[in-house]
Amino acid sequence: MERKWCVMGGSKIFDDFEIDPYLFYDAIVKSTDDYIYVIDMKTDTALVSENMWEDFELPGRIVKELVPVWGELILDRDKQRYYDSIQVMLDGKTNEHHVEYQIRNRKNEYVWVTCRGLLQYDDQGNPVIFAGVVTNLGMKGKIDPITGLFTQGECSKLVAHYMEKKEAKGGILLLGLDDFSRVNALHNHIFGNSVLRQFAQTVQRYLPENAQIFRFDGDEFAIIYTGVGKQEVYELYQKLYAYSNSRQTTDGVSYFCTVSAGIAMLNEDGDNYLDLIKYAAAALEESKHRGKNTVTFFSPDLIKEKLRRMKLGNLLQVSVMNGMKNFEVYYQPLIDAKDMETKGAEALLRWKCEDYGPVGPNEFIPVLEDNGLINQVGLWVFEEAVKTCRQWISLYSEFVMNVNISYLQMLDREFVANIEDILQKYDLNPRHIVLEMTESYFVTDMSALKEIFQKLRTIGIKIAMDDFGTGYSSLGLLAQSPADIVKIDRLFIRAIHQNDFHLQFISSVIMLCHSVGISVTVEGVENEDEMKIVRSIEADCLQGFYFSRPVPAKEFEKMKRQA
Ligand code: C2E
Ligand code: CA
Ligand code: CA
Question: Which of 225, 319, 410, 453 has its CA 20 to 30 A from that of 68?
Fold first, then answer.
């Protein structure tokens, strides 16, 4: 590039125009929020504006060797870009410096800035002055103030620009924090914002140089990872997975917040930004429906599945409106491990879909949760179970009924009052009821759930921690758990023949629970062999196909009569 000699000094207009450089400098600096620096190239000494010194960890307004001092504050992954840009200028290839990077301010936060400067030379071609401005992009609407990340608008510009190259390779990884609305609902928005900021800042440390993260709406983020194939994008998710599955602490509060992701590949799945984002969003939705905390690559089939969920949603709505038509509660016996008698049952919901045939609860319960129908349906299941239990205790006085409760039901303010009303209506003593809740909620939201658990226990209802071993629980946490019963997930019994670990695990859980007065149910007992093993390690209660599959109430009664 051609050098521009003494851009200002060479201009004729200054011959008839005298200005005081000090006043001029002062006026410029005071009329902008930007940071301004001037470097005397002969002595390598800089004068920085007052706000620059106030906002960043600089030794003073006068800084010797500003380039490396400033460089030290720049985020590691951006450092090279910054130094390269300076080097190109010093090599004489250009007299301009223009680069965007993240830099640490005095509050210890990384902020996005764009840094521009111009190197000027004297008549002999020696550099004399290098001066310019640093702009905080957060103040220009390009940056999301909560997380300090570039916004969605910037993401679309980057992708559009990148896609101009016909053979552009890479992936869009759309991320959604799992159950983030729960984090907000249980604590508050300020805490929620801190969680988002911590997530954003941490993820950045995991990103390779050719990847960049953007803040989308709510709890969503997108990473654009260029120049790579599916495997690399997948490996990046694996890193985020490992991080998000460990316990985090923000503002002194400890919590878990896992991440689901959807991936669409540039030029493989779509050749424009809007399609790619739509496809990544469909893949993310699929991850959420597959139980969250996982990743899905986009495929055209996903669109079909999404359509199926929407249709199921409509049909479920119709069922609910028609007085719970096509819903039925089945019962699976719970067996006392000591005397092998049926001591209770778990109520399990079934739904016959007119268009698709039988659809399992693992598929329709999440749809009910999404459509806001779960409270109504859950309460109906509870009432059915109470009604049935009332009949059965006249035959077996110690009968106990277990009912599954979705987390969203617990968030309903009326939940406990509704439960009490139903128990009263059927005149059932609460000691006959156990409410089952999935393990992960015990760990993630213990503080918020304590109060509601306390109320339920005061009434006399027992609480079971369901699917133990599938979430994040550590054995250590069990001792403090408010649960009366722990149900070990069937995954463990499935694997006891493979190696000793799983049997040891079940055995340790049983011992530990017994030491603090918690009773243990082992789920998924499918044959005599398994039954014998779990009895030998002193499980209290057994459940599984070996004894019976879940069956309609009538069939359950028939079974009991025959026994
Ligand atoms: P869950 O609470 O873990 O229920 C136990 C599941 O294990 C049931 O599946 C049951 O049929 C199955 N099962 C029992 N014994 C065996 C066995 O020996 N081998 C195998 N392979 N499976 C066994 P189901 O009925 O399909 O229910 C799936 C899940 O749906 C339940 O898991 C529960 O989380 C949810 N669910 C069912 N009914 C309700 C409900 O009324 N409300 C809520 N919120 N969730 C429900
Ligand atoms: Ca259950
Ligand atoms: Ca279970």
Answer: 225
